[in-house]
Design brief:
Blueprint lengths: L10 E2 L2 E2 H13 L6 E3 L2 E4 L5 E10 L2 E11 L14 H23 L4 E10 L3 H4 L13 E9 L3 H14 L1 H7 L7 E4 L2 E4 L3
Antiparallel strand pairs: 1-2, 3-5, 4-5, 5-6, 7-8, 9-10
Length: 197
């Protein structure tokens, strides 16, 4: 008879919390395991259409193969064909998706079962800035507004604490609420211009 007792992983909200806490412990013990690198390659497909390819990412010392294509376009009113979501919608979707991971993981490790989790996000862009009609107008958002709808077997105080945790730890919340140093390179034919932006 096997003296070892096999324990089933604890799954809450579809998340294997045993595996997640194991990963947290491993990264706590060896910070190199928590280093990640993300990359994409985007190609123009004519008009306002582009395809972005995801081929791999790095976690710790391991390269992990991926295979996804993200297609983007613009609405007809902005010279597109309206076949795909546009870059702004992907940006807001990326913010929401990143925060949803945070809410779901944090709730799960605390044993909170979710009944509903929905984030509504919006922002305003003045096209006079985008089209260089008025250089005093920024070409992007000055403010992004979002509302989190959450329901489950937790107290309002617990959900408020989880909300604060997500705002403090979500990568895309951080990315959009803080300035990120951009390091551009421009390659024209076989020539490369560094720091062209």
């Amino acid at each position: 008879m096997n003296s070892q007792i096999e324990t089933k992983p604890a799954v809450v909200n579809g998340i294997n919390t045993t595996a997640f806490l194991g990963a947290v412990a491993a990264i706590t013990d060896d910070s190199a395991q928590g280093q990640t690198n993300w990359k994409v390659t985007s190609k123009w497909r004519g008009g306002t259409r582009s395809d972005t390819h995801v081929k791999s990412y790095r976690i710790g010392s391991q390269d992990v193969a991926r295979s996804f294509t993200i297609s983007a376009d613009e609405p007809v009113e902005l010279c597109g064909t309206n076949k795909y979501a546009n870059p702004q919608e992907y940006l807001l979707a990326a913010l929401n998706a990143c925060m949803i991971v945070g809410y779901a993981l944090t709730c799960s490790v605390h044993g909170i079962e979710l009944e509903e989790l929905r984030i509504e996000t919006e922002g305003d862009i003045d096209l006079r800035g985008v089209l260089d009609i008025d250089p005093s107008i920024p070409p992007g958002y000055e403010q992004i507004r979002y509302t989190v709808h959450i329901k489950g077997n937790a107290t309002p105080e617990q959900f408020e604490e989880i909300h604060r945790t997500v705002m403090a730890t979500s990568p895309n919340y951080f990315n959009l609420s803080n300035a990120i140093k951009m390091q551009p390179r421009l390659v024209i034919g076989s020539s490369e211009l560094r720091n062209a932006a």
